[in-house]
Amino acid sequence: MTRSPSSFGPSSDDEFLIAALRLASGHDPVPDEVAATARAAFGLRLPGAATARPLAVPAPSGIRSTGRARLLRFGADGLTVDLDVDSSGGLVDLAGRVCPPPGAGARAEVRTPCLTESRELSPTGQFAVVGLPPGWFSVVCHRPGHPPVATSWTRIRPE
């Protein structure tokens, strides 16, 4: 008569795992800075927002580049967000354009983990924010009568 593996009871690997979990459960608390960072990240979420994913940016033809600025493109929910990112002097300058222009009452928020800068969009969908700290940022387009569109978080490092 053969016995099924489940009738043997827990294997030694299972017992080791259970013992390790019991040991770790109360003896290794989450560091305060990790918990604070998690709470801050949770506060940055935008329920109901469409996430604009990175899109390929075609190389400009016939134009010489200085190599300083960087063009990023994101798209979602019928919108394209183009960002021209320039870092100098340890800070980041961001010039952006939302296409098609969302119209009156639309605004762009440039968010970092530390601050949020809000700008009303021009009639052509343009905005700019200067003097941002380097690091992670996301741009959120708010349009009256539509859910917000937020770019995925992107990291900008100073040159």
Q: Which properties best describe this structure?
A:
2 helices; ten-stranded mixed β-sheet; alpha+beta; 40% strand; Immunoglobulin-like; disordered N terminus; single chain
Structure class: alpha+beta
Low-confidence stretches: 1-7
Rough outline = elongated
Name of the top-level CATH class of the largest domain: Mainly Beta
Order of helices and strands: HHEEEEEEEEEE
* Average pLDDT metric: 84
What is the level-2 CATH architecture name of the largest domain? Sandwich
- CATH topology term of the largest domain: Immunoglobulin-like
Give your account of this protein's structure:
The chain has helices at residues 12-27, 32-43, and strands at 50-55, 70-76, 79-88, 91-99, 107-111, 116-120, 126-132, 135-142, 149-151, 154-156. By secondary structure, the protein is an alpha+beta fold. The protein folds into two domains: 13-43, no CATH class; 50-58 and 68-156, Immunoglobulin-like (Sandwich). Strands 1, 2, 3, 4, 5, 6, 7, 8, 9 and 10 form a ten-stranded mixed β-sheet that branches. Strand 5 and strand 6 form a beta hairpin. The protein starts with 11 loop residues before the first helix and ends with a strand.
Put the structure in a nutshell.
The protein has about 160 residues and is of the alpha+beta class. About 20% of the residues lie in helices and about 40% in strands.
Strands, helices and their partners?
Blueprint: H1 12-27, H2 32-43, E1 50-55, E2 70-76, E3 79-88, E4 91-99, E5 107-111, E6 116-120, E7 126-132, E8 135-142, E9 149-151, E10 154-156
Parallel strand pairs: 1-9
Antiparallel strand pairs: 1-2, 2-3, 3-4, 4-7, 5-6, 5-8, 8-9, 8-10
